[in-house]
Specification:
Layout: H1 9-35
């Protein structure tokens, strides 16, 4: 067996775990953007009090 075909299983598992966390984070970010859109928000001005 040649040495250049060895696989570091710990490193590969770390990459997969990182990808899974990124996927979950993206899903949560999309859910929050649907619930509370961040961009295109209109500024609400308070009505001036009459004396």
């Amino acid at each position: 067996m040649s040495d250049d075909k060895l696989i570091d299983f710990a490193a590969e598992r770390g990459k997969r775990i990182h990808d899974l966390h990124d996927k979950k984070l993206d899903e949560m970010r999309q859910a929050f953007e649907q619930a509370m859109p961040l961009g295109k928000s209109k500024k609400k001005s308070k009505p001036k009090k009459k004396r």
